[in-house]
Structure to design on (250 residues):
């Protein structure tokens, strides 16, 4: 029994959808009635916990494993979802990692792992899902970029390059897909309270907060609600980068 909402009976795929910002997006879409497939790579326990949490409020989520860096994995995931549910209406490209180092100390593996997950992963998942959306002549894709892709940051040349690439990917694909009634947008969070930012030393965190006009990090749910808006009410929005950064302008 699904909740009734804007997304009743719509099918959504969220990569990296079992924890962090991805889990919040999964929950938000499920609360709007979507059938959500949360893709995860390794953490089966987190995926199972999410399934149970969503069941408690009457939503539906199915967690499917798959490495976004592996094109075959993403093709199989898309085929499985199409076979099981008949369609894919929404794709949220959320999966991402960091491998922070000053560039002079950054090794090729540090660069390649981040580019492969954060940028090539978006190619793999989108390329797998697009034929289904084009056949339907409708769909909505939301790519999670970052303020770091807009303004850069010390120790994050690899991450910044990947996230800037996501923005360019979004704008160009939006031009190509508009004729098929497929919208493509990016959400660019600032600093968000997640397991990733918990690792930031307190003195550095205080300096970052001092640069944010709203005086705090975002909550994961605030990013998720922006995604929800884009896939529900944002019907004339495409090719945009939506900033969720508390006024932390470049």
């Amino acid at each position: 029994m699904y909740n009734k909402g804007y997304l009743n009976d719509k099918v959504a795929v969220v990569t990296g959808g079992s924890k962090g910002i991805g889990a919040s997006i999964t929950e938000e879409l499920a609360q709007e009635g979507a059938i959500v497939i949360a893709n995860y790579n390794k953490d089966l326990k987190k995926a199972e916990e999410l399934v149970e949490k969503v069941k408690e409020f009457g939503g539906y989520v199915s967690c499917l494993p798959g490495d976004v860096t592996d094109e075959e994995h993403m093709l199989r995931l898309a085929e499985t979802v199409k076979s099981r549910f008949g369609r894919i209406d929404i794709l949220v490209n959320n999966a991402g990692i960091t491998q922070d180092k000053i560039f002079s100390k950054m090794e090729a593996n540090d660069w390649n792992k981040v580019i492969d997950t954060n940028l090539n992963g978006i190619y793999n998942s989108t390329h797998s899902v697009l034929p289904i959306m084009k056949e339907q002549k409708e769909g909505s894709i939301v790519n999670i970029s970052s303020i770091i892709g807009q303004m850069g940051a010390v120790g994050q040349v690899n991450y910044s390059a990947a996230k800037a690439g996501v923005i360019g990917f979004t704008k160009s694909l939006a031009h190509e897909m508009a004729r098929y009634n497929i919208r493509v947008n990016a959400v660019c969070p600032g600093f968000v309270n997640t397991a990733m930012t918990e690792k930031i030393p307190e003195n550095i965190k205080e300096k970052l907060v001092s640069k944010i006009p709203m005086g705090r990090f975002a909550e994961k749910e605030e990013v998720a609600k922006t995604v929800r808006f884009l896939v529900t009410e944002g019907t004339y929005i495409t090719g945009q980068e939506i900033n969720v950064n508390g006024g932390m302008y470049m």
